[in-house]
Amino acid sequence: MLRARRLVTLWQRAQPVTDASLQRLSMSLARIDAAPVSVLHRRWMSSEGMNNVPFETDENMTKLLAELDTFRETGKWRQALKLLDRVDKDAALPALDPVMYERAIAACARMGKVEVLPGLLNNMLVDDLTPTSATMDFIIQAYLAKEHWGLIVQLASEATAMGVQLSPAAFHAIMEACGQVRDADSTFSIMEQLSEAGMPLTSDHYAAAIRAAGMGKRPDTAMALFVQMEEQDGLKDNGAAFSQLIRAQVLNGELEQALQSFATVSQRGLILDEPIYTCTIDSLVANKKHWQATRLFEQMLEGGEKHPSVFCLGRAMLAYTGANRSQHAWACWKKIVDINEPNPVAMKYNKMLQGLTHVRDTQLAVKVFDHIQTLFEPGQIHQGAYTTAIRAHGRLGNTQRAVDLFDEYVESCKDTRRVSRFVGIYLALFNALSRDTVRDPALNTRDAKRAWKIMSANVPVVLPPAYASLAGVFASTGEMETLEELIGHAERSWGASADMTQQQEVDEDGDELEAVAVFEGEDAELGSDNDVLLFNGVISGLCKARDDQTANIEAYLDMMLSRGLPITDSIVRATTDACVRFENWELMRNLMKVVDIDALKNPEVCTGDTVSKLLDAGKWSLGREWLMFCHRRGLHPPVRRKMELLREMCENKSKEWRIAYSLANETMSFRRLVQNNVNSVADAAEVCRNADRMDLVIKLFDAAAGHSSLRFFRNHQRQPVVVPLSLYKNAILALLRQPKAGAVEVDDSWRMVKAERICRQMLEVHGKHLDGDALSMAISIKATAGDHDDVGALYESMRALGLEPNSYAQNAAIIAFSRQRRTDQVLAIRDELLARCDENGKIQTVESNVARSLLLSLALAHEDNALRDAVQNLPGCTMEMALDVLMNTNRSTDAVELFNENATSESFEALFHQLCQSGNPVLGATLLLKHSRLHGLSQVHPNRVIRVTNALIEKGNLVETEKLLQVYVDGTDGVSLKQMPPYFQQHTMEMLLFIYGEFGHFDAMRSLFEKELLAFPLEVAHYEAAMEYCTESRDELAGAVASLKLFELLRTKGFIRPSGYTYLLTLQSCLRLERLEPANASAVKSMGQIILDDVREHGFLDGVADELAKQVASAIKRVQVKNQKVIRRINKDRESAFTSVMSADELARIALFCHRHGLPMTTKLVNDLLKLHQDLPTMVSNELAFIKRSLEEGLGVVAAPGSSIPSKRVVKTKKTAAPKAKRAPASFAPNTGLRRPRSKSYEAAVRAASDARWGVVLEPIATDKD
Questions:
Q1: pLDDT above 70 for 657
Q2: Taking the model in full, what pTM does it have?
Q3: Which residues have a Cβ under 8 Å from the Cβ of 789 and sit 6 or more positions away?
Q4: Domain ranges across the chain
Q5: Which among 293, 854, 991, 1130 is placed 20 to 30 Å from 756, CA to CA?
């Protein structure tokens, strides 16, 4: 035995290095001959080589193996070793091989002789033999029985380095050993060696290795193994490896990595077991990651978990409460109650209730405690559970119930346990008493004092939180004298508790406790903290008082400020609660002045609570003040109840498809299915389809169709299982629908190929029992493939069989027949639709896609009567669709003709928009007039008229534009121009002004300026544009007369200030009518003199002079720039320097006329006019030169000697007259180059207008005529 122990010791010390065989050889040679069993451990090393061994027969080998098998089965390990020794020495026997060693090692392992095994292994290595997989199994089993984990790891490292294949049991035992010794590096190296040795590794192998790495506190190694599994070996995990990876990350504190792994699981659609979810949720809740825990729990349910454990539901309940999702927490609790767990454990439920200590949903805590009371005796319930329940009842106002629970706890401690030294249960009772609003205050005071006595008897040292809680009770009951005594007693006792190592601070409700370390030498700071805690309890109690105690609260706040104590968050909340409750808004306003934002623990939440209370109370002004107070200090307070309702709506969505998918997978987990099982899978697929989870429908079909139970057996022992027709149809429908946006789909052509294959299978399996939906899906597939001949044939077959197609099939058939130009079949489908009636006898509404395809086919076939009949009689075929298809088929004229009183305003808008964009504004105007005749002109929006008139002008349709606008001007349709908006009136006036000017309708133009009660102001620019049109008339005399009439309207009507340009245009008209200078030497003033006197009288001389200078400068520019287009002066800003309709001769004559009659020219103006001498008569040029010399010599206004310039212009006849520059349209009119020829029949009208009285201003014309 001594030799055996030495062998074991030496083998354990051996290291798995490359030259370890030399060490093993030396170890095997160091044997002790004195041991009684030394003969059993001799070296079985033959002195002769393998080549000298005679050839053994199969009979000898069989006998040896049979004998070794007998020793192995009977456990005779000594005889087995002796036989090996004999075989090693006898050259006549077959040579030792791994199989012989395997049986000998099996015999030793069977009897638990682990100390012999290392020597046998060394002998095999010396004999250059590799252990078999079974050999490794026997050795590892023996080590497992003795729990020699380190030996297993060392053996596995050496064996895998030699390329030994491992059985699944041995592999898992090795991984367990690696985890037990926490050797993650050996785990990784063993996996690499197995992979190099060619052993086929599966995801289960990697799962075990990842688990071992996690047990070794190496989540990084676990991740490396997972990556190796997927990247190097190309294995896809079924969930086991992911579970072990996540477990390794969770147990080692890598929660974020674990959540990332769960996200990958969700993306891949894997389903993990419930324990791994529960483990992670528990860690997340423990680390205050409640929201992440809820998301993970929901992912677990979405993955198909139907029966979560009580512990998992409890952790999820705590997560939901921590995330402020009470409804989901209640659902978890109801599920726990419904489970009715057998043999419950008190510790589990106590821990569950203690997790609800700090939550806001106190009703849930009460329900949990009530359930605990039904499961366990009071002596089995932990005091922490009683504390939570008392606190919850106190918050709910059930003070008597809280007192009863406290008494129950004290009573349960008499026999089985002592009363707790934990102060929390007493503080919970004090807080419950301070909140009470029902019981007699004297009774609350009595119970508080009784609880104080019990606490004093069991708690060694009363800490400040206890004083604060008791002070809150006295403050809430109005015992102010007792309160003052307690405060004095507490302040005197601070020194006695200075040597305590911990104290607790109460939150805003006086409930939650936080440990604060206290050290010696900090007496002043300790007293300050105790004072703050004491005043916190006092103010919290005062805010819960039944009567108004805000005055006392303000007094205690002043006391705190005088002592230099900070006002904490809880004090602010308590004060604001009392102020809102008793409407002390002045104290709320003063609180802004005393609160120190830097002293608050969470200033944004605290101020947000204050603002929320004010807004809930309707105090908007004070709430705004608080908000400004917060913003000035850089705070952004969160206000409550912003999105509460929306969040609840989003969280209450149904998720039935997850349950259905899980049940279907469970049904298909059996090795052999019956027809009912497959039918249930079809039902699950229907649920998934209703939930729009088409990916799951495809998965269910693949799983059901690929199951072994669907194979046909030749012996006909049982009927084969058939996939139901509904499952075929749902699978085809799922494949026909496009994947959702964002799905990773590079090439989805496989969907159509697979749909065709499934459809073919469906026709083969259910050919005798097909329904309309099945054939409709076949039609849809053919339509998607573009095979219109098959679509038509299938539809005709369906019609012959009397099957009713769905909307997809009808739509595909209509399109196919239309492209085949089989209009009769399209009409037949229309008749079928008209014949379909519901139970009330009314024609059923046609789907929108079918209706549109039908109308489009009829429109393409020019079946106008059928189209009109479908619109009128077939529900679903709307006028909007008909008009749209007509426009899409370039039949806009027919669309306008089809438009009738049944069309809605939306259809009119759509058609009108399309007509305006189609470049055919005449049809748009026709539609507009038709709509106005059907529904009245008042139903036409002015913007539509503006749009169509602009389009008409751009196309040169001035006559149609005039007719359309004239409807408003005449008011023949019940709508006059005065009733329209100002912008429309202005557009109409300016558009008609442009049209009349182009046509030369001066009387109609003048009538526009005579309109009354216009809602927009006329400006001088309108008169300027109209006078320009008159001036540029082909009949200059008629135009001049019309211009003078417009000037008369400008000067006699309204308060529009004339511009210098209007005066120049008027003088130009006088010049053309030879009314600029007086006739002969008469004393009667000429028309030009009268107008110039009007200019002088109203102080417009500077304006006329400036405008004259601008016109001359413009004339110079036109001379310098040849072929420059003349731009009419319509710009209201008067900024264009090239706008003029006056010739150089007219400008010079008007300038000379003004010079002679009181508006002298400047030297610059004369010089500018002389630059135009090429376009001026010689007489005019000479007079301008004389005036220039006179001005230079300072002679003033002097007539040229011997000069007599007539006012009548001298018209020169040229051989080739240059074409007159085309006038540009007004700024308010569209830019168009089309102009209609003007009428030349104005001469008689001009003569009649010249003889008529124009008023006082134009009276000299009549005198001259006489």
A1: no
A2: 0.43
A3: 816, 820
A4: 1-129, 159-259, 602-645, 654-764, 770-877, 889-990, 1019-1236
A5: 854
